[in-house]
Design a protein that fits this description.
Rossmann fold, 6-stranded parallel β-sheet, Dihydrodipicolinate Reductase, domain 2, 3 domains, 18 strands, Alpha-Beta Plaits
């Protein structure tokens, strides 16, 4: 069976999709009896025409010549960003074409409208490439775990952030130095804010939440903290305490409420997520009845991600429909009410009475301490004081932190990293 | 949409399938708009009628009253073994009913016929539960990686064998003791041969091979060695050398040939597979373009496995078709010609000249040695001699082993464990 597709956007992923479809066309045909033909490709940059030429595919700079082409069944959107991607996807769906996209930012923001429009028009949205690059996590969760309740998700969903933290620990370098190295390697953008500040992780978390609970969380309501504040010393102290610091997407469901957040976490060194190196991604799901599951693989890069795009194209071309999830009656937990265990570090003047003052502030907020370590002596100068708390409520902890940071012997701001007993 | 199913076999998995379908029926409906109704259940044991009663489902001891019932769309076979399962599945397919099965032994032996018959009748075979219990590996590979070439597979596919090896290492106990403990915990059968001798791992490997290459390997042609010969001392020496011993299913594809085997492997301690504890399962796939992927989760047990059975039921009920894979032109590699690195241990009389004699035998087979360790001194008595070879051909290594085992100062049989640089 012949299926014609159009590809909009010839960046790294787009080019590799063409390469994979060409290289593996006979394999795909043997497995599925499908012939996938790329009917037309589009990029706003006229210079990309030479890529199209290499693959002998007609090229256009006008995306509408793809989304209005009656011969094309599936539109593959690989330009990213909100506009014009959103308008192009909407128009494609209105034209009753299925779409395949890797655009997590757009789905996180407009997923509800996109999926509703697709359902209304009876076409599909393939988005395997939008979360964890090459890992078939969308299919795994939406179809493989279709009969499961998901109680908890812990995910390393951003390869760039993981790479930066991994290299800081491995090479004992600062955040800034590690970021520059990632940029030099093409693993981080010139403006790295989406990766480093947690926004990209949040987008992917929202997509997983849609799969598990049918709801699209409002982005501004999910606590999101990036890794720019993580210092090498905290990474090394975490290591001493047998933890690794990872940027995690977290979801915990309890009855009708959902605790969602993105922030750096101290993960116990024995847990598989602590061992995720370089720019790899991994997701742990706690489910019932399937138990604990872990998916691991390449989270980004044109070559690996092309696998997910091609899988979506083939699955949609074969006529298989994804399930249209309905909203679960569920509310986001207020982050201020969430309980966590904390790693707390402040730089204090090395003089008697400091610990007493800080302990008194914690005690008055009813936060109890399980571990204290004053790292070195350096009379009169600032030295690190490390504390680990028992479980405490976020709002109490923040209040205590504010008071501590006001103390004259404390060099603010103090550091707070949440510990998860995964 | 209402879909009626019949369940044959009310063992642990069957019971948990009924429980999951009941508990999660509204969740399944919200996600898929499907109502899955269990129309009838069957078990040869009349006493199981009380389970059916608990779920208010009509009960029969006659499987034909399910597979000949025109109201039933999907037959779920959970009795295991070859007969009568094979006849029941064939008859169901002939009656144009889709089937869902967890029966790896049957699929490994008769998969070709079963899938051909299903294709001919235009119905589906769901078999997610046949490999790695709760892990959605069948869907992940067959659909998620549909556009990928798979170059290598390394899998811990048998939870019982992994549990036995894990406990031997953890508690410093013998194989026999660890097996009895697994039996006492209900993790190993009274006749543990399928788990312990590698047969079950082989069955699951064959199913993965079908998914990746469309071929059903002949079971007798795949080298299969179990874990009964693994002694505690080898586990401890492996640990000293920074390895863990795991029972692995291995596939390596090179051009048109496929190297398949099941045997204990020394896995480098840093590799994720080395950390798979208890009765968990895990599979690593090396693919192009998706790169390296790892799936981890519960490999057995009624509760987790019910997730995969339910996922198959729902996916088939929704009308989605699995891809019908066609055979790749591929040949099994002769195991004698395969090259491996080896851990070799023999018990030798502690007297001068032993190492010289053994080394001479290796040298005459052109096997070079990278590491030698004579573990202790005990003049006149037998002491362990550990050697690690460079890569050598299986047939040369076996020949050398035979010669070494004939030496009067060697207490045969010697131990050989293959090392994989995963």
């Amino acid at each position: 069976m012949l299926k014609k597709i159009g590809v909009i956007g010839l960046g790294t992923v787009g080019q590799e999709v063409l390469a994979t479809l060409k290289r593996n066309s006979s394999l795909i045909k043997r497995r599925t009896s499908l012939d996938i033909a790329v009917h037309k490709v589009c990029d706003v940059k006229r210079t990309k025409g030479k890529i199209a030429k290499k693959f002998s595919i007609p090229f256009t700079t006008d995306p509408y010549s793809i989304i209005n082409d009656p011969e094309i069944d599936i539109v593959v959107e690989l330009i990213g960003g909100i506009e014009p991607a959103y308008t192009l996807i909407k128009t494609s769906l209105q034209n009753k074409k299925s779409i395949v996209t890797a655009n997590k930012a757009l789905l996180a923001k407009q997923g509800r409208l996109i999926f509703n429009l697709a359902a209304q028009k009876g076409v599909s949205v393939g988005f395997e490439a939008s979360v964890c690059g090459a890992i078939p996590i969308i299919k795994g969760v939406s179809e493989g775990l279709v009969g499961c309740e998901v109680d908890k998700i812990f995910g390393i969903l951003n390869g760039t952030a993981n790479y930066i933290l991994y290299k800081m620990e491995k090479e004992h370098i600062s955040f800034e130095r590690s970021l520059s190295q990632a940029q030099a390697k093409g693993l981080a953008e010139q403006d790295p804010s989406l990766d480093v500040e947690g926004g990209d992780t949040l987008h992917k978390l929202c997509i997983l939440i849609y799969l598990c609970y049918g709801v699209w969380p409002s982005l501004s309501k999910v606590y999101t903290e990036g890794i720019a504040g993580i210092s090498l010393q905290d990474i090394l102290y975490a290591q001493e305490l047998n933890y690794r610091i990872k940027l995690l997407a977290i979801a915990k469901k309890e009855k009708k409420s959902l605790d969602l957040r993105v922030h750096p976490v101290m993960v116990p060194a024995g847990h598989p997520l602590s061992g995720v190196s370089l720019a790899y991604n991994a997701v742990t799901l706690h489910t019932h009845p399937a138990g604990e599951l872990l998916f691991f693989g390449e989270g980004a890069g044109g070559v690996p991600t092309s696998s997910s795009v091609v899988s979506d194209i083939v699955n949609i071309a074969s006529g298989n429909k994804a399930f249209a999830r309905k909203e679960e009656n569920i509310k986001l937990t207020d982050f201020n009410e969430v309980k966590n265990q904390y790693y707390f570090r402040c730089m204090v003047q090395d003089q008697p009475g400091v610990l007493a003052q800080i302990s008194r502030i914690f005690a008055s907020s009813k936060i109890s301490i399980s571990y204290v370590n004053q790292k070195m002596r350096n009379r009169g100068k600032h030295v690190p004081l490390i504390m680990i708390t028992h479980e405490a409520r976020e709002k109490e902890m923040k209040k205590a932190l504010q008071e501590i940071d006001k103390l004259s012997m404390v060099q603010s701001p103090s550091q707070l990293i949440r510990i998860e007993k995964i």
